[in-house]
């Protein structure tokens, strides 16, 4: 049997895909829920402490983990409706480098999703190494580049909504 969402092979008796968590069978009245976790390969490069931090995120929040830049390994919590990242000390996420504009970009929580929008920065905001133009919906494992900082996005396993 193959998962219709991710294409991975699953055991015929499975109710859910072990890779992506997709429901494979109709609801049978069982009230047991499934907590979706980021796919294992997206957690491989994280320390045990970082994996625990992602797993412990409350519903409606997300974590950005710096994978490049001065703050490699730093974690930035996205837990409000709007979070500004920039070089200004008043920014919610303070990234102290000349390649970052004072009010570089904003992360906004919407209905079950989180977006990033560049705020007219000089160097632009990139998602997965593509320059953004308008709001971009973030997915688990997306890399957001702000100046020379590269941050990987991990939403709560309990969902954003």
Write up what this structure looks like:
- By secondary structure, the protein is mainly beta.
- The chain is 7% helix and 30% strand.
- The chain contains 2 helices and 11 strands.
- The strands form 2 sheets. The chain has a 6-stranded antiparallel beta sheet with strand order 2-1-11-10-7-8, with helices on one face. The protein has a 5-stranded mixed beta sheet with strand order 4-3-5-6-9, with no helix packed on it.
- The longest helix has 8 residues.
- It is elongated.
- The two termini are 31 Å apart.
- About 6% of the residues have low confidence.
Key descriptive features of the protein:
single chain, 161 residues, mainly beta, six-stranded antiparallel beta sheet, five-stranded mixed beta sheet, 2 helices
Short account of what is shown:
With 161 residues, the chain is mainly β. The protein has helices at 40-43, 48-55, and strands spanning 62-68, 75-78, 82-86, 93-94, 105-110, 113-118, 125-127, 130-131, 136-137, 143-146, 149-155.
